Amino acid sequence: MVIASAPGKVTLFGEHAVVYGEPAIVMAINKRAYVEVNLRNDSKIRVIAPDIVIKGVVLTFDQNIFSVESEVASARSELSYIVKAIELIAKNYGVFKGADIRVWSEMPVGAGLGTSAAITIATIKAYSEATGLDLDKKSIAVLGWQTEREVQGTASPMDTSIATYGGIIQVQPLNNDINIERLKVPMKLPIIIGYVSREYKTKDMVAKVRLLKEKYGNIINPIISAIGQVSRKARISLESGDLKEVGELMNINHGLLEALGVSTKQLNDMVYAARKAGAIGAKLTGAGGGGCIIALTLEKHESVSLAIKSVGAQTLESDISEKGVLIE
Ligand code: MEV
To answer: What is the DSSP letter of 255?
Structure first.
């Protein structure tokens, strides 16, 4: 039996623009997804994810055919990351063995905290370890990105890279490769996460921006480049410990994301409530269309948290996780 875990994340800067090759800055949080792999004697893959989908869902993957034993409409999309990851290990490395797989998560699923990427990366780690494949972190990150692209159609390597490496990193996609640089941030980032349920999936939000970009290229392209410039500048502010500037850049980033059409009234309400209560910066984080915001606070931690709750959202206490994917 092998258990691997990988962290969720908040995107500090650069979501959506990273899909078009701009750098993004992302931080791993101390909430993790876990995947347990027990090899079987046959060639079936059975996936059980009681917390994530519904109690007792079993999928089988037999001779390249993926079937749901106890039918649940959402099971396919939620668990297809696991099956795709295993399919790609089989294709890329010629290794396939049947296994019972159990998945659980400390993060709400679909909130924009990178749960599907954390599950993908933990699956690759646990399954490769159980089958005797020795994959380094770079290979795990590249395989994770390939998995997300094949499941979602479009995906940047951001979520899968942070789930692999942990810490705070700058991620930039380079054709089929990924440039990953670890940031040295000299202090803790006092961040509060606010979240509401999501109305849209990441895939839909990415498609929405793509349509806008196709229709208004000469307007949207400069916005995407401006987000890239925000991320570059924010890296300098983070590494020099200038939190006031980090907060200002978060506010600019939120405005640019709003212009891309990915914010919602609820996200804006949380962002403005947090700023009014003393946050030095606040922005939506992740794909938008509902989901999460992050607020940077210096000393008004409690009042910012209450202000976010007062507009009908929940808050999540979280800290940075230096640990990426690991065997438990
Ligand atoms: C989703 O967490 C972030 C997006 O930039 C999509 C992606 O990077 O694949 C919206």
So the answer is: H
Helix (H, G, I), strand (E, B) or coil at 234: helix
Model pLDDT, residue 26: 98
Same domain, 154 and 256: no
Q: Is residue 21 domain-shared with residue 165, that is, in the same domain?
A: yes
- Ligand 1 binding pocket includes 158 (Cβ within 6 Å): yes
- The response to whether residue 15 sits with its C-beta less than 6 Å from ligand 1 reads yes
Q: Answer whether 206 contacts ligand 1 (Cβ < 6 A).
A: yes
Domain shared by 50 and 164, yes or no: yes
Q: What pLDDT shows up at residue 64?
A: 66
Share of the chain residues as helix, strand and coil, in percent rounded to the nearest 5: 45, 25, 30
Enter the pTM of the model: 0.91
Q: What is the pLDDT of residue 70?
A: 55
pLDDT recorded at residue 56? 47
Catalytic residue, candidates 42, 51, 136, 159: 159
Question: What tokens were used for 140?
Answer: 């795990």
Question: Which H/E stretch holds residue 143?
Answer: helix 137-152
Averages of pLDDT over each 10 residues, the chain, 328 residues: 97 97 97 95 81 55 63 57 90 90 85 90 97 95 94 90 98 90 93 90 92 98 98 98 97 98 97 97 96 92 95 89 96
pLDDT of residue 155: 87
Q: What backbone torsions phi and psi does residue 48 show, to the nearest 5 degrees?
A: -125, 125
Tell which atom from ligand 1 comes closest to the C-alpha of 9.
2
Whole-number Å distance between alpha carbons of 245 and 241: 9
Burial per residue of 204-217, b for 16 or more beta-carbon CB atoms within 10 angstroms, e otherwise? ebbebbbebbeeee
Does one domain contain both 158 and 238?
Answer: no
Domain that holds residue 308: 191-316
Instruction: State if residue 16 touches ligand 1 by the CB under 6 angstroms criterion.
Output: yes
Residue 121 belongs to domain with CATH number:
3.30.230.10
- 134 with 197, same domain? no
204 catalytic residue (yes or no): no
